[in-house]
Amino acid sequence: MPLTDNLLAFTFAATVLTLTPGLDTALVLRTATVEGKRQALHAALGINAGCLVWGAAVAFGLGALIAVSEVAFNLLKYCGAAYLAWLGVNMLLRPRRSLSSANADARPGGNWFFKGMLGNVLNAKVGIFYVSFLPQFIPQGHSLIAWTFGLVSIHVVLGLAWSLALIGATRPLSGFLRREKVIQWMDRTTGLIFVVFAARLAFSKR
Fold this sequence. Notes:
Largest sheet: none
Number of domains: 1
Radius of gyration: 17 Å
Order of helices and strands: HHHHHHHHH
Structural class: mainly alpha
Helix content: over 70%
Strand content: under 5%
Number of helices: 9
């Protein structure tokens, strides 16, 4: 696949995933509503800093793994494909009816940048997702580390833009994103994308 097509495909997939309501969306909305736009911006910056931390871990760890063993590469590939397929099928068959309230009881105050970053860094699913998702868009023969950071940077820019949109229009967007039909539609759309990319990953070659 040409480099431009790789970037466009990743940007499209990352955009859909970014717009899908999840814990990060719930945290930004909750912080903007309860504590104001400044604290919500800090939380958004922290969330995306966490993505960069995971990107660094994946870039260096995955690069060493691929370089050392073909067996390890295939094992990682099939585990990643199975994980993406499992996530996708669950989202297709059992879409959520409401946003997760995991952050609903978070106490006000404190360093929201640190809270946002720690929430992402401690979420192993983010790392697993990056390991299984990013390699599909890295052209063969190109620098794994450079491309990983480049793709993660695209994801971060999209995430920041979406967070700023949420913060700037907290009330109307909050109500829209909490509608049951919207959440179910986004979950099913994302689930379908996960299944497609799981198949693409399973049949990919080193």
